[in-house]
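Late entry, evening session. Most of the bench is empty. Finally got around to the prediction I had been postponing all week. Sequence below, unchanged from the version circulated by S.P.
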Amino acid sequence: MYCIQKESAIAIAFVASHDLQEPLGKIKSFGDRLKTTYSDTLTEQRHDYLEQMQNAASRMQTLIEDLLILSQVTTRAQAFISVNLTKIAQEVLFDLELYVQQTRGSVEIGELPTIEADPLQMRQLLQNLIGNALKFHRPEIPPVIKIYSQFLDNQADNIFANSELCQIIVEDNGIGFEDKYLNRISNVFQRLHSSIEYEGTGIGLAICRKIIERHHGNITAQSKPGQGSKFMIVLSMNSHS
């Protein structure tokens, strides 16, 4: 029953998000026109109102995009193929290069395995985890992120029977969180920190969890406030969609 309700909620989110894009686009478009056409004649207070409206529209656009990604994990999934995770991680790091420079961070990519998976979803998974590690760094302390893997013995695990397992680890020196929040961090809209302190919609880790579930894996984490976090993803080397 819970799974059915969860899938129905995601389907509703997809429809709602898709339908919201058109009116939101008009809000942003007319806001841009006002800013361009009447910028010189608006009072400081009206400038502030317009700026707040544009910022709210941008946040809504990000939320809609994240909801669409969440809904598409299963509805627009690709077939599993051989995926070199080291190459995927390097491509993600290239895309995030400017963000890494802005935070004065460093990202160390160890040797990662080649597995059977959806390549686009593996890219989304690593991009969300690395992006979060860069975002949630301690003030004045540049983020240091390590990504590495290890093979696991699955003899006692019935879920992954007859499968080779690997564990992908994303470790950082960021702000961390209390262990009591571990079961909540991958819930949709779940935030552990104020949106004023850190931008985001609270959907990123929910997307990660859904991708991992589709790949018949699991995710857990270890963390302490002010001492960084370690996210551990267990995946089958030869999983099938």
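Two things to note before I forget:
Helices lie at 2-38, 44-75, 85-95, 97-103, 119-135, 204-214.
Residues 2-75 form one domain.
Will write this up properly tomorrow.
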